[in-house]
Design brief:
Helices cover 41% and strands 15% of the residues. The protein has 18 helices and 18 strands. An eleven-stranded mixed sheet has the order 1-9-18-17-16-15-14-13-10-11-12, with helices on both faces. It has a seven-stranded parallel sheet with strand order 4-3-2-5-6-7-8. β17 and β18 form a beta hairpin. The radius of gyration is 27 Å and the shape is elongated. The model has no long low-confidence stretch (mean pLDDT 97).
Length: 503
């Protein structure tokens, strides 16, 4: 599913109007019917409704909704803010239609505004500003938003909560953003909806299909994509019925230090569950028995040192290498790491302490092999690229990093974002808060490494890997709940995740 910028949303509206063809006022009427249906599904006709409409097309949507709610027997009071004396053409038309329906239902605000009393049990329809907003709210509109936010009334926002911008909210005034209980967004989700800072304003999000041009959606290029299950299904590689382990890939994991053997166990188990033919784990001698007992299916290659990874290993026989979980950051490990990265010709997944080492040896970033896959969580990316104020700024830095090193940066989070070297970003749609637990990232490293060794291309391994990782976490959460979920549950549920995608 594509995610469009505010400019592209406007372009898609115009494309639909030109090619369907349909008048813009009729397209607004179509959107209003979908919005009204969603509202009436959630709130009965006994609910008093206050509609706040801005002067643009978002306000036009709101006025059309007010008229349709009146038709359905709702008690509606609409306030149209026409401070500048300039309404969009479609907003002006919906003002006229509402006045024709019931003139007393509309109050047009041109100067002074006395806000209505907002009480519990009332519903506010927020149609002040939509996806076209490009600066923070101020003055009277900011005061109105604060007034609504302080009230006990419930709020449903049309398309975007007023004050929230569709992409970059780095310098927004968050106190001046409407806090919705339900956001009814039109046709496609917005980029800012995927960031954790926005969740306090969105409430529950419902995407309404208003039948914007499918051809237009296909033709308009987008930098951002939100994964859907069918996208991942198409990428799955078939398994040859006559395959043997030698044909299914050989993966090497370099993980663990003394006291961190569990990270090596989790990554190796996940790698095997990802379908690889063979998995070898290179880990310090002190972890040998732990790995042999915990993962009998894996080959254990003990390092020279008792407690840390201290010497690069030959990778000629491997199709993929995952390095970093539980590795430690000692100087001898750091030197061994950069030597390993320089010597490894096959695809590499670098995670956890591998990233922390690179962050403390910034000059080594220039020596990373093209096509390397980095899987940082937000704090690890901040160490690599400098502190970010919010998720949008961090995402832009991740994109710049992927382009600079000509590699892949998988920025982990609720909606993990895979930044490709060509600038495209793929957001994951699976996963849950229960996965915020130690070892979850080690599992992801193992899955992607296994998929790479199995024969997946780098981008496909990341896409399939992060989707499977989140899907297995969702299955585990349904079984044990989010509070009790541990990383091992994700591995245990990987077979079910694979089966779901194969069905």
């Amino acid at each position: 599913m594509k995610i469009f910028t505010s400019a592209q949303i406007h372009e898609l509206d115009n494309y639909t109007i030109e090619h369907e063809p349909v008048k813009s006022i009729d397209l607004m009427e179509r959107a209003a019917r979908a919005l009204t249906l969603a509202i009436t599904d959630a709130w009965g006709s006994a609910t008093p409704v206050i509609v706040f409409a801005g002067p643009g097309n978002n306000g036009g949507d709101a006025l059309a909704v007010a008229r349709m709610l009146l038709d359905k027997g709702y008690d509606v009071r609409a306030y149209l803010f026409n401070i500048s004396g300039r309404l969009s053409e479609d907003c002006a038309e919906n003002k006229r239609r509402l006045l024709d329906k019931k003139a007393k239902a509309l109050v047009e605000v041109t100067q002074e505004f006395e806000p209505p009393q907002l009480e519990a049990g009332m519903l506010v329809v927020d149609g002040l500003f939509g996806s076209g907003l490009n600066k923070p709210l101020a003055g009277g509109f900011a005061s109105l938003v604060k007034y609504v936010n302080a009230s006990p009334a419930q709020v449903v926002s049309i398309d975007v909560p007023s004050g929230l911008m569709t992409e970059d909210n780095t310098y927004n005034v968050r106190a001046n953003i409407m806090r919705a209980d339900l956001t009814l967004t039109l046709q496609l989700p917005k980029l800012s909806f995927l960031f954790p800072e926005s969740q306090q304003f969105l409430g529950r999000v419902k995407v309404l299909d208003i039948r914007l041009s499918a051809e237009g959606i296909a033709e308009i290029p987008s930098q951002y994509t939100l994964l859907e299950e069918n996208d991942v299904r198409r990428l799955l590689l078939p398994r040859d019925p006559f395959a043997h382990k030698g044909k299914m890939g050989n993966a090497l994991l370099i993980a663990g230090s003394y006291g961190m053997g569990g990270a090596a166990v989790l990554a190796t188990k996940a790698c095997l569950r990802a379908g690889v033919g063979k998995a070898t784990i290179c880990t310090p001698k002190q972890n040998n028995i732990i790995l042999q007992i915990s993962v009998p299916e894996a080959i254990v290659r003990s390092g020279r040192d008792e407690t840390v990874f201290s010497e690069a290993v030959d990778t000629e026989d491997f199709q993929a290498v995952g390095i970093g979980p539980g590795l430690g950051t000692s100087e001898q490990t750091a030197i061994a790491l950069i030597t390993q990265l320089r010597r490894t010709p096959c695809p590499i997944v670098a995670d956890a302490d591998a990233l922390n080492i690179l962050a403390s040896h910034r000059a080594w970033m220039q020596q990373l092999p093209p096509g390397i896959i980095l899987t940082p969580h937000p704090k690890e990316l901040d160490r690599l690229e400098g502190h970010s104020t919010d998720s949008y700024e961090r995402l832009m830095k991740a994109c710049a990093l992927a382009e600079r090193i000509q590699g892949y940066v998988l920025l982990k989070g609720h909606h993990s974002a895979l930044c490709l070297p060509d600038g495209h970003v793929v957001f994951n749609s699976t996963g849950n808060a229960g996965m915020a637990t130690a070892g979850s990232g080690d599992v992801l490293t193992g899955i992607i490494t296994g998929l790479l060794a199995r024969g997946y291309k780098r981008a496909d391994a990341c896409i399939v890997g992060m989707y499977l990782h989140g899907l297995a976490g969702d299955i585990a959460a349904r079984e044990v709940g989010e509070e009790s979920l541990v990383a091992g549950d994700i591995i245990r549920c990987l077979p079910q995740a694979f089966r779901r995608l194969a069905d």
